[in-house]
Specification:
The complex is a heterotrimer of chains A (174), B (288) and C (831). Chain B has twelve helices and 14 strands. By secondary structure, chain B is α+β, with helices and mostly antiparallel strands. Chain C folds into three domains: 183 residues, Aldehyde oxidase/xanthine dehydrogenase, a/b hammerhead (Aldehyde Oxidoreductase, domain 3, Alpha-Beta Complex), CATH 3.90.1170.50; 381 residues, Aldehyde Oxidoreductase, domain 4, CATH 3.30.365; 153 residues, Aldehyde oxidase/xanthine dehydrogenase, molybdopterin binding domain (Aldehyde Oxidoreductase, domain 4). In chain C, 26% of the residues lie in helices and 24% in strands. The chains are: A alpha+beta (174), B alpha+beta (288), C alpha+beta (831). At the A-C interface, helix 1, helix 2, helix 3, helix 4 and helix 5 of A face helix 1, helix 13, strand 28 and helix 19 of C.
């Protein structure tokens, strides 16, 4: 047992504008802290190797998979989760777009995708289809085939999706 | 998925970090965590103390000078991708960073982590080998420079010893008569590599110099001097490149797994090396 | 043709959903979205029970081994551990082993909630720990000391049937779970009289899974006071689970309470979680507190269940010179894994689509289901039909290639034609409706095939790239007649199908609907609301459909759950029936209240009014009041018969099949999908890229177009993933090689093409709404990609014989002609 480190740490984390002060074990993953300690159930777990993206949140302004961070690393951090998107019960434009274009089926990957779409659009307000696909490469969805996910993000960016994609030989993967 | 009990500390500067790392055999640096956290989840490492270096400013700078680029070990792939300075000096470095897995991993994963958790499928090691990078290692007793070819020692083993840290990576620029290439054959888009190749080529009435590194053909990236020799002093033609690639053969011993047999990987190493060299020649302004 | 409802339901027979058309048929926005978009869904890991402990299963590292000893003392002494349950203890606590579908000898297999004397696959559960926190349970699991004696294992599907293969279940005596021959028409005559016989040595359909993003989970409480076993879980077929675990646990089904709200995808895999749930029930009983279990991803891949792997040997296909394919003969070997979870039902399920989309008259399938030291197989999206349909498409594709025939014309020639419906297949299944030639034309039109053919020609050879154009046809049978189980085991008392629904007006006239289904993204709340809304003349947003399944609500029959592409028929059929019953009661009450005749009553906007006298009206709140709080206004003779609480059980008109001849109408509806793809292959590496992709869907009447399209998109993605990236493989020692998404590459947004979609609506004459079950999709991408690769190989000698085509295999196919690899196909000309 070293004298340098500790197994237990006090942390202060701000999530969706609210600050929480808790004590955590060093080994606890941030996703378990958010779900179990704070009861914020919107962030989901779909794998154990950081591949599926169901746990995606915005951490100090950056999209991350919070199963790949320790809770103790979140000390002092500002976090946004899916629960912070809607205001006063009203869906935000990204959520509205997913609703309009059937961008979700079972809803399990959806919170992570919404955070990914939110992050993308902050940086790139008019993403191309290819940029959207790259942006959500780290989010696995088993229900939608990503077709309506891409449409939803395009719609959230204010693009017309009625004729998207084009039929015929011009279409196809980027 | 659930970690073993572990200790954690976040040092305020490199000096504290080195002290912490030297304090016990079970101490390990935690940077982006995009590999290490998985290792911990699988409970396969005997790590007792995590030394969080991810916020140390001394490890997070990007310096671009006339000789080359020095990137701090804890600079993330996303930061490299966004750096206009890096893109202006060594665009191939930006491109490699931009295609690592996905945005979430790029936002946390660091170039230092990519090098120090020496997984054969990682992106940066073969590139750094081809570009002749130098790894800057620091310990309590001082700093030392380790060329890339001496840095990668085996599966998850590098020249960084106990009580030491990778501080930064220095990548030399190349002139207008040179070019670099980086090619991968992956299982799927921006995903696990089956084989990688990276090349830096200098043209002077044909190919005057070549550095070729192969990835995923062994535990560490391999400089294929056979192909380099075959190219040197020869023409920068497609046929010459193809013929030189044939020198990649039984001298490499890639693994066989579900993504391909050793024989397939060997064949693909030739194809991918050829493509990397072709890309490098094109950047150098030559080729057909 | 729908049957008259059961005795307790007094509504008249429903006439093809004649009232549908206002909300139904439109892409209304989903009710489910409100909570899911806000992260307010209730998935099983979100559920916490007071005093719960966290469970962690201890699983075997060996594929096959004797369990010599289990010592839990170290685990039990860890602070925070409540208890540990071993296999021996579990068996003691059980009444009988799990019910088996298979006839003897396989049916004699003894499976308990945990492994007792032996482990039989890498991941087999041997013990389960309950502790105060997730972490402690995980730590304690490592402290359970197990001694094993490894045994030889068998992983080859075909070799497992050999006499000298290591036997998994001694009480069975061999590894054959089931064997039978399905013989229709006269294949020997056809083979003797054909102009050509094409023989294919081997076709292989690989093991993969839809891997739903949410893993299995359950919070189980065996209440020490009431003896009720409360099961919060994401199991998708709770009544099948009840049927199996009830007798094992010794708990009556009236004391089993399955409940679920939101399920993060299931695709058939979540049918297989009943053994874990049974183990958790026993764990809860032993500990005297609820047991909460959330499966890990690696645990899911090891042990939740894989899709069927099927090997087809010695395929023989008689063909006439004009391209008419007379049928086929094949030996099929299916791999059930180490235990029979729902298997060997798959041994008959494929026969719902015996000739695929084609008019083959002579079919002979010698079918063996074997047990191997691998994860048990469970129904995976397209259960058992996927494998058979792929084999048929390969046959058609290979025949066309071998005989130099046009693949499009060959398909059209052999397809069931639009005028043939209802079409009876050689084993008595009745294809309800469809238009396959038009669907094929539509798919080809969507990818502008002429343009791609021109590009393919233009590309020629020597560029290092090849373009391939492929077609895949598939038929998605929906709404099973469970009587087919009797073909597997004549002793099984199962037949027909059905689903239950409740529709009611509540205290203040609110419309509520309860379903017996367990939706996992198929939008039941929305589509049921659309249908009910049209019947009752309200806006769909005024219909509340209870989210999820709850056994306490009593809205179930033995078949309840969500699986097998049947909701649009059974679930919506039940909702429709219940709504019609409710409407009838509302009309009767309205006539009393408004002093008019029932024929004059109209329903609109939540009110009842007299036709042509809009102001003479009573709102639903008034109707409800009559029954709930003010019933003297109802004539006494009516009071007993009208309660505004209408339970309806929809049952399709099925009969028991002929067990001897293995014939019968096995499924009610047959949706079709024809896919077309354009691929580009890198000759040097074998890497394939999809340049264009289209699906033409026909699922009969569409209740919500956007939702139907979403199902087609999803099925396509899973098929493409399996085709190119996803496979579960075992090494020679039975070790699973893929246990994470890093090794098992689930298709990502970067891998998926922007597919095109088109549809045809051929209403089913057999369902209340004209809709057909859809959702599973039939696996068309698997055939389509194989066909596209085959097309790109046109000048080489190889035949695509595998469903899974990673780059190394494509590279091998490109070069096997030069490498003198045996083709595996022989064509014999008879004339």
């Amino acid at each position: 047992m070293s004298e340098v480190g500790d197994k237990i740490h006090p942390i202060s984390v701000t999530i969706n504008g609210e600050t929480y002060e808790r004590t955590v074990e060093a080994r606890q993953l941030l996703v378990h802290f958010i779900r179990d300690a704070l009861g914020l159930k919107g962030t989901h777990i779909g794998c154990d190797t950081g591949n599926c993206g169901a746990c995606s949140i915005i951490f100090n302004g950056k999209l991350v998979k919070c199963c790949m961070l320790l809770a103790v690393q979140a000390d002092g951090a500002e976090i946004e989760t899916v629960e912070g998107l809607a205001s006063d019960g009203a869906l935000d434009p990204v959520q509205e777009a997913f609703h309009e274009h059937h961008g979700l089926q079972c809803g399990y990957c959806t919170p992570g995708l919404l955070m990914g779409a939110t992050y993308l659009l902050r940086d790139n307000p008019k993403p191309s289809e290819g940029e959207i696909r790259r942006a959500v490469r780290g989010n696995i969805c088993r229900c939608t085939g990503y077709v309506n996910v891409v449409r939803s993000v395009r719609a959230a960016a204010g693009e017309d999706v009625a004729e998207f994609p084009a039929t015929g030989a011009e279409g196809g993967s980027p | 998925m659930l970690l073993e009990s572990i200790e954690y500390t976040r040092p305020a500067d490199i000096k504290e970090a080195l002290t912490a790392l030297g304090s016990s055999e079970g101490a390990a640096p935690l940077a982006g965590g995009q590999s290490l956290v998985n290792v911990l989840k699988h409970r396969v490492a005997s790590i007792e103390l995590l030394v969080d270096i991810s916020r140390l400013e001394e490890l997070r700078s990007i310096d671009v000078g006339e000789d080359g680029v020095e990137i701090g070990a804890c600079v993330t792939y996303d930061e490299i991708d966004r750096s206009e300075a890096v893109r202006g000096a060594l665009p191939i470095v930006s491109e490699v960073a931009a295609h690592i897995e996905d945005q979430q991993i790029r936002n946390r994963g660091t170039i230092g982590g990519n090098c120090c958790l020496s997984d054969p499928t990682n992106n940066f090691p073969p590139l750094l080998l081809a570009l002749g990078a130098v790894m800057n290692v620091e310990s309590e007793s001082g700093k030392r420079e380790v060329p890339a070819e001496d840095f990668f020692r085996g599966y998850f083993m590098t020249a960084v010893g106990p009580g030491e840290l990778l501080r930064s990576i220095s990548i030399p620029r190349y002139g207008p008569d040179s070019g670099a290439g980086f090619q991968s054959l992956s299982v799927a888009s921006d995903s696990k590599a089956i084989v990688r190749a990276s090349a830096r080529v200098t043209l002077n009435d044909g190919i005057s110099d070549a550095r070729i590194a192969l990835g995923v053909v062994g535990p560490v990236p391999v400089r294929h001097t056979g192909m380099e020799d075959a190219l040197r002093d020869g023409p920068a033609t497609a046929d010459a490149v193809r013929e030189a690639a044939e020198s990649i053969g039984e001298d490499i011993e890639p693994i066989s797994d579900t993504h391909g047999s050793a024989d397939y990987r060997r064949k693909m190493a030739r194809v991918i090396a050829r493509r990397a060299v072709t890309q490098a020649i094109a950047e150098a302004g030559g080729g057909e | 043709m729908s049957r008259a409802p059961a005795a307790e339901t007094a509504a008249p027979p429903v006439e093809k959903g004649e009232r549908l058309g206002k909300a139904s048929g439109k892409s209304v926005r989903r009710t489910e979205d409100g909570r899911l978009l806000k992260g307010q869904g209730e998935f099983t890991d979100d559920i916490w029970m007071h005093r719960q402990g966290f469970a962690h299963f201890v699983r075997s590292p060996h594929a096959h081994a004797k369990i010599l000893s289990v010592d839990t003392s170290r685990a039990m002494s860890l602070d925070g551990v409540y208890t540990v349950l071993t296999g021996a203890e579990a068996k003691e606590m059980c009444e009988v082993p799990f019910f088996q579908i298979a006839p003897p000898p396989a049916g004699q297999m003894e499976e308990w909630p945990l492994a007792v004397d032996k482990v039989r696959y890498h991941g087999d559960a041997v013990a389960v720990v309950l502790a105060e926190t997730r972490d402690i349970a995980r730590d304690a699991a490592e402290l359970v000391d197990l001694e094993y004696e490894p045994l030889p294992s068998v992983v080859d599907t075909v070799k497992a049937a050999d006499d000298d293969a290591p036997i998994l279940h001694e009480e069975v005596g061999n590894n054959v779970a089931w064997h039978g021959v399905f013989d229709y028409g006269d294949i020997d005559w056809a083979l003797d009289n054909a102009d050509h016989v094409v023989r294919i040595d081997r076709l292989h359909f690989h093991r993969f899974s839809s891997t739903p993003l949410e893993c299995n989970a359950a919070v189980v409480n065996w209440d020490p006071g009431t003896g009720v076993v409360q099961i919060e879980s994401n199991n998708q077929m709770p009544m099948f689970a009840s049927m199996v675990i009830g007798p094992t646990l010794g708990v009556g089904s009236n004391k089993l309470q399955f409940r679920s709200q939101d399920i993060g995808g299931a695709f058939g895999i979540k049918i297989g979680s009943y053994p874990q749930i049974a183990a958790l029930a026993l764990l809860s009983r032993k500990a005297g507190r609820p047991a909460k279990w959330t499966e890990y991803r690696s645990e899911h891949m090891l042990s939740a269940g894989h899709g069927n792997e099927r090997t087809f040997l010695d395929v023989e296909v008689p063909v006439l010179s004009d391209g008419t394919i007379l049928g086929f003969k094949v030996r099929a070997f299916d791999d059930a894994g180490a235990y029979l979870h729902y298997e060997p039902l798959g041994a008959v399920i494929w026969s719902q689509v015996t000739p695929g989309c084609y008019k083959f008259k002579h079919v002979s399938v010698d079918y063996t289901e074997t047990l191997t030291n691998k994860c048990p197989t469970v129904p995976n999206r397209g259960y058992s039909r996927l494998q058979h349909l792929w084999m048929i498409e390969r046959i058609v594709d290979v025949v066309a290639t071998e005989l130099g025939l046009d693949p499009v014309e060959t398909r059209k020639k052999n397809f069931v034609q639009p005028d043939d419906y209802p079409y009876e297949t050689p084993n008595g299944c009745v294809y309800d409706s469809g238009d396959l030639p038009a669907s094929l034309d539509l798919a080809l039109e969507l990818i502008d095939v002429e343009r791609w053919r021109a590009k393919q020609k233009e590309l020629g050879t020597g560029s290092g790239k090849r373009i391939g154009i492929g077609i895949g046809s598939t038929i998605d049978s929906g709404t099973n007649n469970f009587g087919q189980a009797q073909i597997i085991n004549p002793e099984l008392p199962f037949s027909g199908n059905g689903e239950a629904a409740y529709a009611k007006l509540d205290l203040y006239g609110e419309v509520n609907v309860d379903l017996g289904t367990t939706p996992q993204g198929q939008s039941h709340e929305t589509t049921a609301a659309q249908v009910v809304a049209d019947v009752l003349g309200v806006d769909h947003s005024a219909v509340n459909v209870t989210a999820g399944f709850d056994q306490r609500h009593n809205t179930y029959v033995g078949f309840s759950g969500t699986y097998a592409s049947q909701f649009a028929v059974t679930g919506l059929g039940a909702a429709l029936g219940a709504a019609e019953m409710l409407r009838k009661e509302i009309v009767t009450l309205a006539a009393i209240a408004l002093e008019s005749s029932e024929e004059e009553i109209e329903l609109e906007g939540g009110e009842c009014y007299v036709r042509d006298e809009r102001e003479r009206a009573i709102p639903f709140i008034g109707i409800a009041n009559m029954v709930y709080s003010n019933n003297t206004v109802i004539p006494p003779d009516l009071r007993e018969r009208i309660g505004l609480n209408c339970r309806y059980v929809y049952t399709p008109l099925f009969e028991a099949p002929d067990k001897e001849r293995k014939t019968g109408n096995l499924t009610l509806t047959y949706a079709t999908q024809i896919h077309a793809a354009v691929v580009e292959i890198d000759e040097d590496t074998g890497r394939l890229e999809i340049l264009d992709y289209a699906a033409a869907d026909d699922c009969g009447r569409v209740i919500n177009p956007q939702i139907v399209q979403g199902q087609v998109h999803g099925a396509t993605a899973l098929g493409l993933g399996a085709s190119l990236y996803e496979a579960f493989e075992y090494d020679a020692d039975g070790q699973l090689l893929q246990s994470s998404f890093y090794d098992y590459h689930a298709l990502t947004a970067l891998d998926m093409p922007m597919m095109k979609y088109g549809d045809i609506e051929s209403p089913s004459p057999f369902t209340p709404t004209g809709a057909k079950g859809m959702g599973e999709g039939g696996g068309a991408p698997l055939s389509t990609i194989c066909s596209a690769i085959q097309d790109a190989l046109s000048d080489s000698d190889s035949v695509v014989a595998d469903t899974h085509n990673p780059w190394w295999r494509i590279h091998e196919l490109l070069s096997s002609g030069a490498a003198n690899v045996p083709r595996g196909v022989q064509t014999e000309a008879r004339t």
